[in-house]
Amino acid sequence: MRELKQFGVIPIAYDTLVHFYAHYKSPKDKIADLVKDGALIRLKRGLYVVATSISEQKLSKELVANHLYGLSYVSLETALSYYGMIPERVHLTRSITTKRAKQFSTPIGSFDFLTMPESWFSIGLRFEQVGESYAWLMASPEKAVCDMILASHSVRLQSVKAISEFLTKDLRIDFSAVKPFDKKIISQCLKVGRKKNELMHLLKYLSS
Fold it and tell me: Is 12 left (phi over 0), alpha (psi -120 to 50) or beta?
């Protein structure tokens, strides 16, 4: 089991594990035994991660999300919580993808993927580096706010006042947690995204 430690917390494809245990008579049975013994965690068909008891590292749900369903980036409440912009602790890891929307329930938590167009996808992204070990793709604070507005289908935000109440009262976003707040990213989203009125009101609110 200890030989798995070299993989750290990076999710591992089934084919990689088969190759890694190619010296066994049945790599498939070896992998099944490791899952049964708790050394490997099966995230979905064909994807695994080493248990913390072996890797001796904290699992990263954000990193898992990137591997679980790609191409995707971590955003929405998950990103806002990560940046300290909302007070709530978020248990569901939410991401944006260009593929169809999907949800996963895994032994380490639940993951939700929301669809956005390709023209929207690439704006305002960053890699969050963790030491020299790994990094995950996530929305900038500005992009996460824009994603929240586009994802809120049932909320009408037809004025600066409505945007203000939605962001500060409903979501309880603290914009002072991130300085400076790059309004250029919001302008880029405005050019390609749906809900142009809402994004324009957001710009006006942030400029007031």
Answer: beta
Position 208 confidence tier, pLDDT thresholds 50, 70, 90: confident
Which residue's structure tokens are 């590292």? 57
Integer Cα distance of 102 and 17 in angstroms: 26
pLDDT (mean) for 11-31: 96
* Structural domain spans, the chain: 2-55, 61-207
Contact by Cβ (8 Å): 7, 55: yes
pTM over 0.85: yes
